[in-house]
Amino acid sequence: MLSTQYQELYNNLIGTIDSKRMFHDPLHTLAYGTDASFYRLIPKLVIKVKDESEVALILKECSKLNIPVTFRAAGTSLSGQAISDSVLVIAGNHWTKYKIDENGLKIKMQPGLTGAKANSLLASYGRKIGPDPASINAAMIGGIAANNASGMCCGTSENSYKTVDSLRIILADGSVLDTSSDESKAQF
Ligand SMILES: Cc1cc2nc3c(=O)[nH]c(=O)nc-3n(C[C@H](O)[C@H](O)[C@H](O)COP(=O)(O)OP(=O)(O)OC[C@H]3O[C@@H](n4cnc5c(N)ncnc54)[C@H](O)[C@@H]3O)c2cc1C
Known about the structure:
The protein contains seven helices and eight strands. The chain is of the alpha/beta class. It has two domains: 4-90, Uridine Diphospho-n-acetylenolpyruvylglucosamine Reductase, domain 2, CATH 3.30.43.10; 98-187, Uridine Diphospho-n-acetylenolpyruvylglucosamine Reductase, domain 3 (2-Layer Sandwich). Flavin-adenine dinucleotide binds at residues 35-36, 70-78, 81-82, 91, 111, 133-135, 139-140, 142-144, 146-147, 149-151.
């Protein structure tokens, strides 16, 4: 049973987001209440998002209602940064589009691609992504970038922050900033 504030959020989202991808029952919220850390926070609402417009809507509605939002990719974080006692938004398995540019020098990825998959795509160009967390087979680009993941080989010189060229960001009011686009930057 959702509290009034979260019920209002749910009602505002249900017209756009399929209820099959929004969970607030005890079993699902318990299951999503843990990541690879030893903390537990039970979310009120778990939403598996399918595209940017859904993320924009969630952020806008949560912002209006003053409800905190946490994102999760693969949930391998060790310090509790992929759990929430509020709204947990999952941009994982279905966010796997990518585009390789400049003969493998750059790869544009959605947040649900695992680091290992990115490396397998770049292998034929003789390249790999900078960050090499030991969790690379499970960790996804959204989490790798947001955590500034690094690893035994990349150290601090080729970690996520040092090797990200541009980002497509959805802001709290639902607007989108694509730092690779001059037009988007001008609009911002
Ligand atoms: C066995 C093991 C070994 C590890 N080894 C390393 C290592 O060598 N180096 C290292 O740096 N880390 C390591 N980690 C920690 C962790 O795996 C990495 O930091 C990894 O990059 C997290 O990726 P993830 O997909 O699991 O992200 P998650 O844990 O799901 O999320 C990480 C952060 O990113 C945010 N986030 C996720 N997706 C998005 C999005 N789309 N938009 C905005 N924010 C988003 C989350 O809110 C959270 O704050 C290890 C963990 C384990 C369990």
